[in-house]
Amino acid sequence: MRRIALALWAAAAPLGATAEDARSVALVVTDAEGAFVPGIRAEEVRVLENGEPRELVALERDERPLAVVLALDTSTGAARVFRGLAFDAVWSFLSRLPPGSKCTLWTTGDHPRKIGVLEGERPAVEKRIAQGFGGDGGNTLLETLVDAADALGRESGRRRALVAVSGAGAGHTTLSPGDVSSRVRRAGARVLGVMYREGESAGAGSLSGLDAPRDAANLTIVGPGDHERILSGLAQGTGGRFESVPAVLGVGRILESLAAELGGQYRLRYAPADTKGPRRIEVRLARSGVRWRVVIDTP
């Protein structure tokens, strides 16, 4: 039986005082179509910490409700190519989230905007989405990720996910890449990103009147390569996913698959070594025909 190992560098958060001083990590297991695989047994799972086997204390399906932030690029160029499809894509995403989920919409125009919770029937959801596209301009994707993650980190008792949908244009920020990465990861949320390249040559997400990246008055112009690098890095570092598609028509399909993946995960507890510093947590699963990865666990 083929075994695949996926690893996540993180100091796992303690669950509280137990006999084993157990720590926890989350695990996503899907089939070839991306659907959650139930019924994984403890005897199928092996945990290694910094390469050494550790005792598995408990394995259970994570039944905590889900808190999601959906960050949409509403910059001028991105809105031009995506707005017409956004209503169907977002509604389809919401419809596939597990019952009891809370999804909050943020947008990335000239400044981060928290639009509000997407809930109720479709007309109410579409009204929120339209409000999000009401202010365009530049693309503050990085600031939006940070502000949204800060808010998400206050969702006590819920597992967390940050989903970003962005065009491949330029944007602006006052933050360094390191600041963005550390502050987003502090929220304990899985990051999932979708970037579409349609409209890129027309300036999707670009700042008006600027022909080339430059720094001025503490404002750094960020190129599409920087956005992709940071977003994909956050996805990889939190056990999430990053997808790049050539056209906006592919966004809805990917959002559906992300929602299906968010529908379930496992939480496993293991007895850690009495060491300090980063812990490389590796999980191996002895079952054929499935895919899995370690996911950052909500504290």
Strand and helix layout:
Blueprint: E1 5-10, E2 23-30, E3 45-49, E4 52-54, E5 56-61, E6 66-72, H1 76-95, E7 102-108, E8 112-117, H2 122-132, H3 141-152, E9 159-167, E10 171-173, H4 177-185, E11 190-196, E12 215-216, E13 219-222, H5 224-238, E14 241-245, H6 251-261, E15 266-270, E16 279-285, E17 291-295
Parallel strand pairs: 6-7, 6-9, 9-11, 11-14
Antiparallel strand pairs: 1-16, 2-15, 2-17, 3-4, 3-16, 5-15, 7-8, 10-13, 12-13
Helix pairs in contact: 1-2, 1-6, 3-4, 4-5
Count of helix runs: 6
CATH superfamily of the largest domain: von Willebrand factor, type A domain
Overall domain count:
2
Poorly predicted ranges:
1-19, 201-217
> Which percent range fits the helix content?
25-40%
Percentage of residues in DSSP E strands? 25-35%
What's the average pLDDT? 84
Shape: globular
Fold-level CATH name of the largest domain: Rossmann fold
Taking strands numbered 1, 2, ... along the chain, how are they ordered across the largest sheet? Answer: 8-7-6-9-11-14
The class by helix and strand makeup works out as: alpha+beta
Rg estimate, integer Å: 20 Å
- Name of the CATH first level of the largest domain: Alpha Beta
Largest sheet: 6 strands, mixed
Characterization of the model:
- It is a single chain.
- The chain has 299 residues and is α+β, with helices and mostly antiparallel strands.
- The chain folds into 2 domains: 5-62 and 265-295; 66-261, von Willebrand factor, type A domain (Rossmann fold).
- 26% of the residues lie in helices and 32% in strands.
- The chain has 6 helices and 17 strands.
- The chain has helices at 76-95, 122-132, 141-152, 177-185, 224-238, 251-261, and strands at residues 5-10, 23-30, 45-49, 52-54, 56-61, 66-72, 102-108, 112-117, 159-167, 171-173, 190-196, 215-216, 219-222, 241-245, 266-270, 279-285, 291-295.
- The strands form 4 sheets. The protein has a 6-stranded mixed β-sheet, sandwiched between helices.
- Helix 1 packs across helix 6.
- The longest helix has 20 residues, at 76-95.
